[in-house]
Specification:
single chain; about 240 residues; mainly beta; six-stranded antiparallel β-sheet
């Protein structure tokens, strides 16, 4: 039987106590739909990361995809992020934000389904140890708003907003460069497994939708055709001079 469950929460402070109970998830509102997940705004208004490269969540169910829209101008205490996350898992998909993926910790935002409870959707905020990556995830208190979720078989899609995101602890100095991690994990009805990273984006400016777009620079090496034209011009110039 097709399972489609949705969730809408207007504003929520998410807190996980040690020992997650799989049935203690957020309340539901049926027939609430998430937005269309496409690449249409990637590199324009949204910073997109995905694996495999350039996959489109609109037509590829195996595409693990995230789109981030950062507020402009900067909010008083940091930037506000609107995030779309899509991928396949019988447990959870997750998006992590970290300053350095090999040091410190990662803020981890998890969209999951409890397959032992008819595939019900739930959302969690956790913290990952970037040094000991096999350690269990730990509870993290972080304000998250406008949470919407959708589950169908293995497919999980969710949207949520994260207010006041700042890569520095100094509120007078706003920084929006983070490494984005995408990955998955399992859920046994009680415990979330360690986060299995599928994509490490490296440092990206979240306020710049083009920060991971490869552009062609004017300083690139000339092509073979360009070299031939330059050689011809130099020969002609020499002939005129003679």
């Amino acid at each position: 039987m097709e399972r489609v469950l949705t969730l809408f929460v207007a504003a929520l402070m998410v807190y996980m106590a040690p020992g997650i109970q799989g049935t203690e998830h957020l309340s539901f509102a049926n027939n609430t739909q998430v937005s269309n997940f496409t690449r249409q705004s990637c590199g324009v208004t949204e910073l997109c990361v995905e694996t495999p490269d350039d996959c489109d969540p609109a037509g590829n169910s195996s595409c693990l995809f995230a789109a981030i829209n950062a507020s402009i101008p900067m909010a008083p205490n940091g930037t506000d992020l609107a995030i779309k996350l899509s991928g396949e898992s019988m447990g959870y998909i997750g998006l992590g934000l970290t300053v350095n993926s090999s040091e410190g910790s990662t803020m981890l935002f998890i969209c999951a389904q409890n397959s032992s409870s008819n595939g019900t959707f739930f959302f969690r905020t956790m913290q990952r140890n970037n040094v000991n990556t096999t350690d269990a995830l730990t509870p993290s208190e972080r304000t998250v708003t406008e949470i919407r979720g959708w589950v169908k078989d293995k497919m999980i899609r969710c949207e949520f907003n994260i207010p006041d995101v700042n890569a520095t602890s100094t509120r007078s100095s706003h920084a929006t460069t983070f490494t984005i991690l995408l990955g998955t994990g399992t859920f046994d009805g009680n415990t979330l497994s360690p986060f299995n990273v599928s994509l490490d984006s490296g440092p990206l400016n979240l306020r710049d939708p083009t920060s991971n777009v490869v552009t062609t620079t004017s300083g690139r090496a000339p092509t073979s055709a360009a070299n031939a034209v330059l050689l011809l011009l130099s020969v002609l110039s020499l002939s005129v001079m003679l």
